[in-house]
Amino acid sequence: MKKACLLFFVGIAYFQGYSQTPTPLLPQTNTEKEWDISLYGFARTDFIWDSRKSAFTREGQLNLYPLDVILDANGKDINDAPQSNFLSITSRLGVKAKGPNVWGAKTSSVIEGDFYGNVEGGTIGLLRLRHAYINLEWSKTAVTIGQTWYPQFIPEVFPGVANFNTGILFNPFGWATQAKIKQMLTTEFSVTFTAYKEREFTAPGPGTQNSASINSVLPSINAQIQYKGKNSILGLGIEYKSLQPLTVSNNLVTTEKANSTSIFGYGKYSNEKFSIKAYGISGGNLNSLVMLGGYTGKTIAGQVETYNPTKTTAVWIDLASNGKAIAPGLFFGYTKNNGSKDDNTTATFVNYLRGISGNRIVDNVWRASGRVDFKKNKFRVTPELEYTDATWGDLNKSNATAGANKTAVGNFRTMISCAYSF
């Protein structure tokens, strides 16, 4: 009996010892989060003072060009009047998301809005969609689908001005729903192809908003090549656009298009101390980019309306310090209305343009500004002085150019911008 009990306890000890023997380590699982969602944005307030009335959007937040001289009964210029405002409508909120891979591609998405409103008037202060897109990224190829920047707007190369205009009239601006593919040729060179439909800031054509883009089966096609090195970026692009303002004109079925092309180029150099950026664009019907021009409509009795794009040329340069606490900067931009090629004086013309007022039209605009960024952590205060000069002239309706009686008018803008980012 004693021998049986001894064997029993020896067996228990054996199995207890075996159970405490370390087991081989299992393969480590991937601890990376399947989903990663983050918020970003900023709260911003601007104080603005202008010496003269200007063409603007949203109660003066974004100034385009000073208005022409218009005399009252006593010979005084009614547009020679100062204005000021406080605004916080450019405050912004966005959501970034990353999720599981799709077909071997890293996936991400962005939805972003601000409180700028969609049109002048009652929508000011309401939420406006800026970006809403999906991105698929492989090792050398990336595909973007959704609403984001027009392909002519280069996020790495735009003016660093404090004014919310972001160099508007001289630098393309706005968003469009699009399909974009980017292919890396080497570690430094890439090519990008984009097909998009206009949505924001479209020309005031004969149809409803965006009808010219919707009526055209062919989307706008944009292609560019870019070099991106350690300290520099260089790029060159070309675009073809075909819009169809109407399907019925003068009670006749029409397929008349406003066809246009444009080219653009840009560059940036940046190091620890300073950065310099430059951009140039020239082409027809750049209205949707918040630039001068658009297209003309020509009608001959008994025929449908036909269209000609007006050509616009714009250049700018921006020089800024990269100081971490204090960073001054300078900006200069120039844009010119080159008109259309049509010069038929027997037809009836309607001009669907930006930069026109009655029988007067903008010939050219230039702007110079200086700023200083004072930065501390996520807080920034930026005072800026800006002068914008516009030359107006009598409208030549047939080719949408400025003729006689040219007059230069200027607006001096003083502003202080405060923003807290998160």
UniProtKB/TrEMBL annotation:
SUPFAM superfamilies: Porins. This is Porin. It comes from Flavobacterium pygoscelis. The lineage of its organism: Bacteria, Pseudomonadati, Bacteroidota, Flavobacteriia, Flavobacteriales.
